[in-house]
Amino acid sequence: MQKLTSILIITGIAFFTEACNMFAPVDPLAPAASEVSVEQVWTSGATVRGKIDNLDPKNDRQEKKSGKILEYGFVWGTQNQPTLEAGTVIKVGEDNPPTPFEFVREINRLSVLTTYYVRTYARNQGGGVGYGPVATFKTDDYVFAELSLGKITTTSKVSADIVVNILSLGNAEISSFGVCYSSTNNEPTTKDSRATANGKAAKGSFTVNVGGLAAGTTYYARAFAITLGGIIYSDATTGFSLGEPAVFTPKKSFTMYYSNPYDLDQGALVSQVGSEDLNWYPYNDKPGIYPRNGAKFAVLGAVNFDQVKYSDLTRANLSTGFINGSYTDVMANQLQNGTVIAFLTNQGRYGKLRVDAHGEDRRPGSASGGDMEVTILTYDQP
Question: Which parts of this chain are annotated as the region Disordered (predicted)?
Fold first, then answer.
């Protein structure tokens, strides 16, 4: 009996000890990080792509302790098997996205003719750090081609021919080259718009056709070449414009009689319903311009009518909203003498209108106070 009791006590102690071990602290598992690839290498940098396959390895006890990922990214250096402690870290994110997921970054300020090692890493809440396999690359001592822009020739209302000069080829092989351009960035890159030249790169001049442009808009252009050592650009940026489009209705002045519809394509009163661009209505609580049939307007203010360019009209904040011409509330009056208005007709033509006179300043009760004298110019469709 005493022997049996001893056995039971020993068994109980063993069970209790095992049970305690089940709830004892455990080492956190590292998240799985893998698949790094080197996409491009140049004289002083490289582009690398990483992929995280799985944030928490499937182990019930460990998974609970490991928790979510805290950060992930790349670690690189000149020694193999770089680590967070002995390497340079590029932290990409701190989120916990669904796996697998990829990310791309550039490594810059590298030394010429040097071998580098890079891999992905991920750290989780439990303190585990995982590393992916190592990729290696070597920077080269590239000599790049020399580029310049040549003559720019307008070929139509929406395109231009631009000459790209390759002055020298260097030793970094060119995979493609051409012109990059932008109407907003005065130092355009290949991330803006671009047009590629035909044929293989060689020393000489190449003509590149750039299409899809807007008349009257100023563009900035420079030559580019994509090489094994990176993207290079011509030193100088050239600005160019296709100029003003043809005029549809030359500058003319006329009187808008109150409450009548007017066609701004022609600059004339119309009676056919559906062709009018506006009604000028001078009375009651809301005198002003009432757009019709989708025509749009924007008040440019008291500017010089002749100096307003086509590009100013296309960039204006045009809308189909009512334009207040109140003569009872001076502060609300947007149609004072000398005001210039941009418009887009229901036929798709841009133009400009200047308020020359309000008839006798449109005084209430005046016999001719309801008329408005204007000057317009309408451009043809590009």
Answer: 358-382
The domain 32-138 is placed in CATH, from the list 2.60.40.10, 1.25.40.10, 3.10.20.30, 3.30.450.40, at: 2.60.40.10
For residues 199 and 177, the answer to whether their CB atoms sit within 8 Å is no
CA dist list (Å): 242 to 179, 203, 219, 247: 16, 29, 9, 14
pLDDT digits (tens, 9 = 90+) for 182-240: 999 989 999 999 999 998 999 999 999 999 998 778 899 999 999 877 788 998 888 88
DSSP string, 58-108: S-HHHHHHH-SEEEEEEEEESSSS--SSSSEEEEEE---PPSSEEEEEEE-
* 272 — pLDDT class (breaks 50, 70, 90): low
Residue boundaries of the structural domains of the chain: 32-138, 146-241, 247-379
**Among 63-72, 211-220, 282-291, which range has the highest average pLDDT?**
211-220
Collapse the DSSP code of 169 into the 3-class scheme (helix H, G, I; strand E, B; otherwise coil) and give the result: coil
Peptide bond into 100 cis (omega under 30): yes
Radius of gyration of the chain (CA): 36
Task: Specify the DSSP element, H or E, that contains 6.
Answer: helix 2-22
For residue 208, the cross-strand partners are 162
Whole-structure pTM value: 0.46
The contacts of residue 105 (CB under 8 Å, 6+ apart) are: 47, 48, 50, 73, 74, 90, 92
Burial class (CB in 10 A: 0-12, 13-18, 19+), 197: buried
Q: What fold is seen in the domain 146-241?
A: Immunoglobulin-like (2.60.40)
